[in-house]
Amino acid sequence: MEVYFDNSATTKVYDEAIDIMVKTMREDYGNPSSLHLKGLDAEHIVKDSAGIIAKALKCMPEEIVFTSGGTESNNMAIVGTLLAKKRKGKHIVVSSVEHASVSAVMQFLIKEGCEVTYIPSDENGIVSPDAFADAVREDTVLVSCMHINNEIGSVMPLEEISRRVKAKNPGVYFHVDAIQSFGKIPVVPKQIGCDLLSVSGHKIHGPKGSGFLYVKKDLLLRPIIYGGGQQKNMRSGTENVPAIAGLGVAVNKTFTDFETKIDHIRDIRNRLCRELTKIEDVYSNTDIINGAPHIASISFVGVRAEVMLHALEDKGIYVSSGSACSSNKNKESAVLHAIGLDKKRIESTLRFSFGEDNTEEEVDYAINTISELLPMLRHYVRG
Questions:
Q1: Tens-place pLDDT, residues 140-197
Q2: Looking at residues 49-57, what average pLDDT do you find?
């Protein structure tokens, strides 16, 4: 039996998305910038996908800039803001539990002379709106905060952060990394109060190498890629029309029967957490009441995470030991440190992340397998 519980790392692409991508490559292969019919057909595909995304976000299609994924979207939002507002200041406020595609950019900008203030989280992985507001200064140009933490599933109070920050300095841009939240909980930029919002296609059953950045209308943002001036000069380069087509289909399908899908995902996540934490020295690091519906962070004290991961892999169960986007696999999780876990808990933590195709049968198989494996692995380690 094969069980894939690593949907926060990537998802299986919808068949419908694959079909439209193949059709686009075979039939609608024109350059969207070309003036002939083939180019116009490709341009229509790009516009149609922008319209689908705009409907999901309750925004305007012209506020969508297609990118190669979440990392580029985050880089475009952050670096583009600093380039656009460099005369007003070089101060950024960011949470301490961000994904590497944000935290690594901050390290780059510090070397370039920017000042970054990091806001710590509490024991649940939540950052304080008061702390964000207190950190904002006259020379602050950007506040950046993820929507859902990719490791433990904590949901940040974005609306309150935006309200407090904007009240103190209305000129500050508010950027949201919604890579783990889009398609899992409601994401509406106007409701959140954000100016920039990043999304990745392969987290919602779209193709890898697809994504977008929501840019609030009339927002001053400098591009970080220059060339032919595509996408209203915001991102030069010929658009990846097949990936954009697949992304549009994935968004449309993701939000069809949305509540039913999310209820199912939450139910099976809760079932796994509830049953596994009945085992001695097994702990959930996820708030299953207030957290995201699709992520469960679980510590199996007494067995290192990579040992348990590979033992499960041998049984056909695929999970993660943390963020799949980090090249330094041996580095301990900053997020788990931030929420106050001790070394034994951190070293034994796995992330289970669920999708709409996962079943109760798969969850029960994982529970039974772990119940059998854990005593043997602990005995082996002690021996």
A1: 999 999 999 999 999 999 999 999 999 999 999 999 999 999 999 999 999 999 999 9
A2: 98
Give the per-residue SS3 of the chain. Answer: CCEECECCCCCCCCHHHHHHHHHHHHCCCCCCCCCCHHHHHHHHHHHHHHHHHHHHHCCCHHHEEEECCHHHHHHHHHHHHHHHCCCCCCEEEEECCCCHHHHHHHHHHHHCCCEEEEECECCCCCECHHHHHHHCCCCEEEEEEECECCCCCCECCHHHHHHHHHHHCCCCEEEEECCCCECCECCCHHHHCCCEEEEEHHHCCCCCCCEEEEECCCCCCCCCCCCCCCCCCCCCCCCCHHHHHHHHHHHHHHCCCHHHHHHHHHHHHHHHHHHHCCCCCEEECCCCCCCCCCEEEEEECCCCHHHHHHHHHHCCEECECCCCCCCCCCCCCHHHHHCCCCHHHHHCEEEEECCCCCCHHHHHHHHHHHHHHHHHHHHHHHC
pLDDT tens digit sequence for 259-286: 999 999 999 999 999 999 999 999 999 9
| C-alpha pair distances (Å), 52 with each of 32, 204, 250, 251, 278 | 18, 14, 10, 7, 43
Distance between start and end Cα atoms, the chain: 30
**Of how many residues is the chain composed?**
383
Reported as half-sphere exposure (CB side, CA atoms, 13 A), residue 296 has a value of 26
Catalytic site positions: 325
Q: Are 200 and 70 in contact (CB under 8 A)?
A: yes
pLDDT category of residue 326 using cuts at 50, 70 and 90: very low
pTM of the predicted model, to two decimals?
Answer: 0.95
